[in-house]
């Protein structure tokens, strides 16, 4: 009771706000709202390709546009948290995303559909890049959540954050086609802009940084802020050496091995989240609503939810072994889709790929502190940012197969995932072998 009263008195003395639970809720809410931008163009890709008259490569570039900012901005904005707390970086990303959605909505209001020409293609890409800034919230949100919780509770907190936030693209993949059918493209994006504005406002009003950052903003000296924060249960205190952590981790070869793995699993996840709706429309002639449901339930939601279980079995059996099994699973699913000419067979392939990627995502981040213990934060920045960059690079490559083979290229393009899975399997074996040698040497 005395400890509880002491904490209460400290909170009242320094006028501190928020709790770990509220911090987790708001960080997850912010990530959920921003991460939905992954599906910005995927459900409408086939329609935009028809109206704009663009090639398969340009189509891939268009649907991947949000992932450019959504991946690369993760690195600097995640680092910024150590200086400013999570709220300011996340609100900045929201602001950039709003700019993109406002520009896109105005463009559609003025020109869609009759006056939307191929010359406007790059405007749509640029607005998509801005809107995708919200996808980068993952990185500062991870840091924001970590500072609120003690180490022994971070596993479940970060698992909840990532798992629930990752549901956004799948849910949007279901709802956007329904909205398109009911209200049309322009009104649907206008509604999306409204939700983004409301979500940003809610986050701004109800979010509070961890106690240390609140104290620093109130002018409390670092030593006192650190002492008070620790008394209130905050174990992690920013060192201010984030850039040094990035430099140190960049010099460790294992960091780049993990980047390769995450490029395939999470970058691949982002790419297929925007690609599968068009695949189902073109390959099997489903309408947008059905294609969105197939992507969401057969891939995106499955991959997001199974990630929690992936973390559990990685703890139990080792991240390297689970990674190897997971990438073999991705390989199997990609081969099935590559050779399939039947809907149910292709659906099974999609489910297998989704399960493999979800478990692999968990396994990779379990390996980050194991392989880069002295610069875990920096390594997480490289892995999370450059790994997610796969979501931008892969769709244009898939589009090249459409240019070469026509609609048949939607299936043939999955040879890319066969190659990525093989590279990741080899990389996982190398990491396991290197770690085993180091362990034996010790």
What's the layout of helices and strands?
Layout: H1 2-14, H2 20-35, H3 45-52, H4 56-72, H5 74-84, H6 87-111, H7 121-131, H8 138-148, H9 151-165, H10 167-183, H11 185-206, H12 211-217, H13 222-231, H14 242-250, H15 253-284, H16 288-317, H17 319-339, H18 343-371, H19 376-388, H20 390-405, H21 409-412, H22 415-441
Helix pairs in contact: 2-8, 2-9, 2-11, 3-4, 4-7, 4-15, 4-19, 4-20, 5-6, 5-8, 5-19, 6-7, 6-11, 8-9, 9-16, 10-11, 10-16, 12-13, 14-19, 15-16, 15-18, 15-19, 15-20, 15-22, 16-17, 16-18, 17-18, 17-22, 18-19
Question: How much helical structure, as a percent, in the residues?
Answer: over 70%
Using only CA atoms, what is the Rg?
22 Å
Quickly count the helices: 22
Please identify the structural class as seen in this structure: mainly alpha
Give the helices and strands as they follow along the chain.
HHHHHHHHHHHHHHHHHHHHHH
Overall structural domain count = 2
Summarize the main sheet.
Answer: none
Residue runs with pLDDT of under 50 for 5 or more positions: none
CATH top level of the largest domain is Mainly Alpha
Share of residues in strands: under 5%
- Tally of strands: 0
Write down the CATH topology of the largest domain.
Answer: Growth Hormone, Chain: A
How far from one another are the termini? 46 Å
Descriptive terms for the model:
442 residues; mainly alpha; Growth Hormone, Chain: A; 2 domains; 0% strand; globular
């Amino acid at each position: 009771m005395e400890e509880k009263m002491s904490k209460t008195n400290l909170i009242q003395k320094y006028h501190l706000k928020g709790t770990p639970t509220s911090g987790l809720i708001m960080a997850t809410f912010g990530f959920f709202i921003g991460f939905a931008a992954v599906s910005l163009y995927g459900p409408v890709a086939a329609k935009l390709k028809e109206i704009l008259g663009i090639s398969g490569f340009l189509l891939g570039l268009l649907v991947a546009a949000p992932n450019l900012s959504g991946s690369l901005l993760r690195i600097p904005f995640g680092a910024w948290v150590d200086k400013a707390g999570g709220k300011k970086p996340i609100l900045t990303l929201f602001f950039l995303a709003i700019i993109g959605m406002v520009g896109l909505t105005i463009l559609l209001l003025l020109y869609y559909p009759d006056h939307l020409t191929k010359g406007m293609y790059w405007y749509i890409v640029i607005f998509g890049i801005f809107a995708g800034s919200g996808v980068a919230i993952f990185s500062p949100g991870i840091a924001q959540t970590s500072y609120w919780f003690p180490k022994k509770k971070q596993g479940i907190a970060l698992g909840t954050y990532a798992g629930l936030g990752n549901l956004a693209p799948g849910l949007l993949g279901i709802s956007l086609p329904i909205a398109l059918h009911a209200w049309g493209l322009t009104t649907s994006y206008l509604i999306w802009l409204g939700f983004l504005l409301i979500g940003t406002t809610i986050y701004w009003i109800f979010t509070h940084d961890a106690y240390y950052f609140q104290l620093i903003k109130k002018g409390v000296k670092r030593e006192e802020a650190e002492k008070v924060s620790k008394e209130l249960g905050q174990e992690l205190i920013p060192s201010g050496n984030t850039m040094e952590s990035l430099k140190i981790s960049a010099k460790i070869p294992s960091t780049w091995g993990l980047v390769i793995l995450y490029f395939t699993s999470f970058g691949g996840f982002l790419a297929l989240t925007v690609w599968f709706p068009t695949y189902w429309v073109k390959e099997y002639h489903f309408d947008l609503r059905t294609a969105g449901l197939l992507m969401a339930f057969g891939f995106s939601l499955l991959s997001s939810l199974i990630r929690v279980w992936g973390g559990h079995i990685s703890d139990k059996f080792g991240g390297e072994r689970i990674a190897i099994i997971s990438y073999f699973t991705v390989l199997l699913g990609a081969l099935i889709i590559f050779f399939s000419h039947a809907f149910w067979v292709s659906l099974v392939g999609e489910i297998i790929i989704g399960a493999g990627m979800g478990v692999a995502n968990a396994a990779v981040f379990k390996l980050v502190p194991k392989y880069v213990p002295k610069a875990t934060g920096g390594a997480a920045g490289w892995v999370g940012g450059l790994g997610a960059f796969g979501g931008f690079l892969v769709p244009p490559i898939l589009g090249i197969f459409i240019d070469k083979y026509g609609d048949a290229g939607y299936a043939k393009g999955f040879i890319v995932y066969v190659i990525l899975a093989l590279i990741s399997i080899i990389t996982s074996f190398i990491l396991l072998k290197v770690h085993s040698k180091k362990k034996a040497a010790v």
